[in-house]
Amino acid sequence: xxNIVGIIGGGQLGKxxxxxxxxxxxxxxxxxxxxxxxxxxxxxxxxxxxFMDYExxxxxxxxxxxxxxxxxxxxxxxxxxxxxxGIRVYPNSKSLETIQNxxxxxxxxxxxxxxxxxxxxxxxKKIILQxxxxxxxxxxxxWKKTRFGYDGFGVSIIRxxxxxxxxxxxxxxxxxxxxxxxxxxxxxxxxSNDEFVSYPPVEMIFxxxxxxxxxxxxxxxxSIQKYDEVNNLAYNLTKxxxxxxxxxxxxxxxxxxxxxxxxxxxRPHNSGHLTIESCVTSQFEQHIRSxxxxxLGETNFIQPSIMINLVGEEGYKGTPKFIGIDDIFKTKNxxxxxxGKQETRPNRKMGHITIIGSNNLLDxxxxxxxxxxxxx
Length: 376
Prior knowledge:
alpha+beta; Rossmann fold; Dna Ligase, domain 1; D-amino Acid Aminotransferase, Chain A, domain 1; 5-stranded parallel β-sheet; 12 helices; 20 strands; globular
């Protein structure tokens, strides 16, 4: 493996990419603003810089053969310049530019006749109030920042006019509130040879307070018809984007039985962490295979599994202390991943657990999670 792969972002996704890269002896560079990020000591070289710093990203990229990333919110013009200089950037800058902004995502869906919820673009809170008062959108509705939202941050449900006053003043979209039967995720990969593979859909179960994914369960309990519909949507969307790399597509299965596309993530995704233990090819290996234009790996699951997100407890900020770790190691067919972040804070993702098995997985996961606390 002669290529140098540069990864922008040194968090847990980068760490799990590096863990696969080490198995094939692939040389890796990491770019991150935090000198103590989880990837710092796992890569061949570390470069410190802000994600919006044009000059530093250019400098970093010129040292690499291929540049990829583990987060969306980076300087898009720097990536375009690297592409102009002949450096391979995957996923490409055009795909990222579409996905970086939730408004442009929605426009992309509608322009390509991909099913999604009804939405309105709002430049400020004044327009939000006008839309509500004129009954152009009904309450409750969903408010989303167009940029810089992640892990449940930047998303809120508006249930009354008073809720609008609590929102920040920024560009946003308002979405029609959807009665959801299940929230699904499909992960798909494509390489430069136009080879596609997709993983079976998984079900995401969200925490009602934090709006974060709490559990990911596979297989998703949906019909064969819906399974095919979801995978066909994922294929068509990826083709329209001219996308290379791993793409996560979050979808809604509504109570009426309709499939709607919610959001995209141009990278390995939280909903795919369970592929490390429960699938023939992990999402991290698949991403590296796709950007190196290698044959893509098999995506079938070996056996059912559930993933539990481990997040910082409310009321704690500082050096993390994990309570209940022994209970994880005492539980059969259970795998722990600690990300190595130097600071915990409320609802920050600090690790995950995957349980492999076939019986009562959700009950087992809930019982185990009750025993685990991350404090400081």
